[in-house]
Amino acid sequence: MSRCVPAADLGGSFFPYRVDNRWKPMFAALRVSENDGVAVLDDDLVATFGRWKVETPLANIDHTEITGPHRWYTAVGLRLSFVDDGITFGTNSQSGLCIAFVEKVPRVIGPRGHSALWVSVADPAALASALLQE
Fold first, then answer.
1. Cys staple from 41: which of 12, 59, 101, 133, with CB 3.0 to 4.6 Å?
2. What is the pTM assigned to this prediction?
3. Are the beta carbons of 67 and 95 closer than 8 angstroms?
């Protein structure tokens, strides 16, 4: 997926991140832009965070959970969970959506694949609803 093409043009919906401006210098260093976020396409979920990407079939989504608020140091940036093998694409600590997978997605960072992805999109409830409809 080209990040310059709106997800709607690809037959899907795009959910941008809710950005906490205090962390913009870090996001610039990670090359996170307004083109990053989560796209729900006809058959796939594609989440981008700078040069990092998680892509998986919608059929691989087990469940979702809206969470937050969190401590900033556990929610902001590109992070690997200390508790499990989940990954975070975080732009704020207020709220986000945890997306759990049936089968682990390929490794983005760390030593192995990821069983969950946490994303701090602007509207976690709408993303959760879009994933349930698919």
1. 12
2. 0.89
3. yes
